Records
---
Amino acid sequence: MGGGLRVGQVPTRLLAAGWVAAVALAVLATAALAAQGAQGPGLPAAAPPLARVAGPHTLPAGATTPLSQPTAATLKPRSRVERAAPRPSMATTTVLPPPPVIAAGPEIPDGKGMWIWQPEFASGGNAAAVVAVAQAVGLTHLFVRTGSAWDGLQNMEYLDQLLPLAQAANLKVYGWDFPKLASPADDVFRAKAALDHVAPGGVRLDGFAADIETSDEGTQFTPAAAQAYGAALRAAVGPSTLLIAVVPNPTPQMLEKYSYDAVVPAFDAVAPMVYWLNRDPGQDTADALHYLSRYGKPLMPIGQAYDGGLDGGP
């Protein structure tokens, strides 16, 4: 009963260790008393050197284990650990489509250009002579009338001569038309026919300008009619075709009867007709550009290049 060890059950190695410890203590105590008696009480005795003393009893066989000589450590080669294949992920990934490519807008004419209404009065209708003059004075583009609501489609034969020569000379050519706005669909059809015309060598017009006039010029201009025409024209030719709105000079008098808000939105650029006659051209042009800048469109002012004497001006 109880948790202690019985004497009869003490292992032999433990009993041997006890005997050795008892003998060692007895030797130390005897040496201390002898030293004290020689030097007087109270003084510490010099510690004798330790000596190995045989115990009174021999240790039973098997009570000690002789020390073995240390052997050189041997390195165990590292076993190659095979990496387990990664578990397939159960998560799904979503690859977003690339952002849509925004097509570049049509190229806006740069530099100076010339308008041709009646080709027979421009170098006698000689397309090669017109191109030569344009190059000589540093022009970059030409506008050629392609029709009106009164005359229908015009000057296609002239374009057949002009377009290949202009392309070879790096000149842009744009058609222009005078819509009446009585039937916007008819006006749009005529404009589309001019843009679809193909000259020898596969050359086409580089864009189109609509000369949108007031009722004083014989049109049936209203804001609704002008807006309908612009929207239908844009839908017919698409976003990549250059469309230029040719509009009257925005003088205070013109603003009372002409809606620029209805005309401009469908077009890529605005070309105000700043014909000065008896007015200062510099100030007139500056005023026109200032007003039209509110629409955020490129502006291409059209100046006077004809004898205005017949109209009562210079």
---
Amino acid sequence: MPRLVDAYLEYRSRDSGDGFPPLDDAEPPLLPSSGTINNIELVDLFVRRNATLYAQAHHRFPNENLIYHGYIGCSPVFPTLAISIRTLSAFRQAHRTCPRFNIQAQCKALCHLHNVPYRPYLRKQFTVAFDIYLEIIHHVEQRMQKALGRDAPDWRLHNECPACFYRLEDEPSLTFDWLVSIDGNNSLKRWDTSLYGVKPLEDSRTSRSTYWLSEEDVDRFKDEVKSKKIAQTVNESGDVTEYDDDWVTEEPDADIPNQFNCVDRWRNARADVRKKTFSVFQESGIFVATCRHRFVLLACDMIKSGELAKYPLAMIDRLVSTYGPNGACAYDIGCAFAATANHSSLGAKVRELNLRFMVGAFHGHAHNRLCQLNWHPMYIKGMGHSEGEGCEHVFSASNELARSTRHASRFHRHQAIEQHFAFWNADKYEALTRFIRNHYREATQTVRTLTAELAIVKEALKLTDDDFSRFIIEERAYLTSLKQHPQRDPLKVRYTQALDELEERRHAWNRAREAGNGALDGIAVGDYNAITLALKQAGARLDLAYAMLQNAEQMAGHLQLQLGIESRWEIGGPEYTRYKAQGVLGEYHEALDELERLVVMRLFELSKLSMLDTGNVIQSL
């Protein structure tokens, strides 16, 4: 490889811009047996020809000769076909701007340009040449970074985003010295080839970039979460759903109302569906970390699982070890993960370095109100306009890679993802000044507008600045003080409902008796068929009303026995009125919660509006 890199650098030094530099004629070609490549097929964007390429005296390998002429062969020793470097470079940049444009599409385009039929082996040949091209580019980049003194293992992390990590002399400190977002995404899944009965090909190549956390680094935290009972919830259809996510480290406080537990809001699929999904994919997605300016910092594979606790724990370990104290991390389940991190082996480090967890602004609005007051960026001092949703911006672009990586090998999947991340970060670096300028203008405009509006509100309501902070504290204290109703209260509410049902069944029984007594009214004397039918209908109605009355009586008696009530409550009495009002208020709160859930669900659906490759029903597969 070093000789190919040298040949490539020599080629680039002679290149005048068209991809085919002039050949050095000062040195005569050697004999054909000394390195000449005869009758090789050369493929360019618009030219396809056979030619004989003469080697230079210092060339030892066929691909040195090919690179000298501007091509890369599809075989290391006896190449019969070579693809021009500028064609490979053009595909690399086209794939950069359109990730769904894959090698197969490029090969078909070349076949159409050269008027030849497409064959699957052409894609394999192009893949080999493109892999060598990227390997050469990687070694050139390594040489350049070493010459510039940028070859330290953590240099990229310390310098990826200059706005986040470059410190000026006497620069004022911010509330948070660094801010990252972490999240998982299951679009970049890769099929497990063993499902087809095909043994995966051996490929010893590994990822080249410093984006990836290794499986060993991640698995160090696989046993961090204490074992617990599998959580169960009952969905709307009455089915019991088991959840096996391991980032919940402890059971919820029994005194905290269910409405204040955020876990169930992020159960995106039932356990059986997820297990089926994970079983068919070797890598079920990626987990990434980004800075507040949306530069990708780290990534790792999720192996046959969902967002287990080990993935964010490994990310946090690397981030706090690299960036140090006074940081912040946004995660869509940051409220629950904070407890996980504090109970793990990282707990002491997290507390010592004062790492602040929070929930992203977009996902945070789906959490309950108490959670928002503690974890939403809107209520955290020092967050400003940072929404903590940088990963979502990254995923909106990386999802385009799904088609080309779903059936790729492990190496080629990593290669495509890290190439995409490198291009993404380069684009973000180019747009960084505009990003900061636009957000600065937006922030100053917001300050001017809201300051004027706030002055009017304070004048009208006779408020001071301290009142707003006090309102937040009081609201948080009020919601925290709310406790789950005693177990007997729901039973008493149910008892009032049973009394209402019993009263209704009594009225139905009385109406059935009255209807039975008058069943023969209006029927002519001697019309035996009509009389028989009327008596049967009256009897059936009477039997049904009596059975329902008995059931209601048994239910009311059962609840009365459970509650230990000596004498049955009277409808309209003080106890009945109290718990009847409590039941109505509970139904009202449930309706509000359902309305909030539907609104948030609709917002998620609208986020897919007008996006390609989405249907009316968004499924997990």
---
Amino acid sequence: MEAFEKNILPLDILQERLQKVSNEKRELEQTKNEIIIQLGSVDSKLIEPEKIESNCYNC
């Protein structure tokens, strides 16, 4: 953390971390959209427990 505060971390490491966070965000948004679609469905008002559990473990 000290290296980060002093801005001495290599740019490659920062870009790699940013890419990882970006990928995680995209996956969470995709899951969120799937849940929204499922809730909007007339046929079903039940969210699959696996979707909720997997998102809770990612937080």
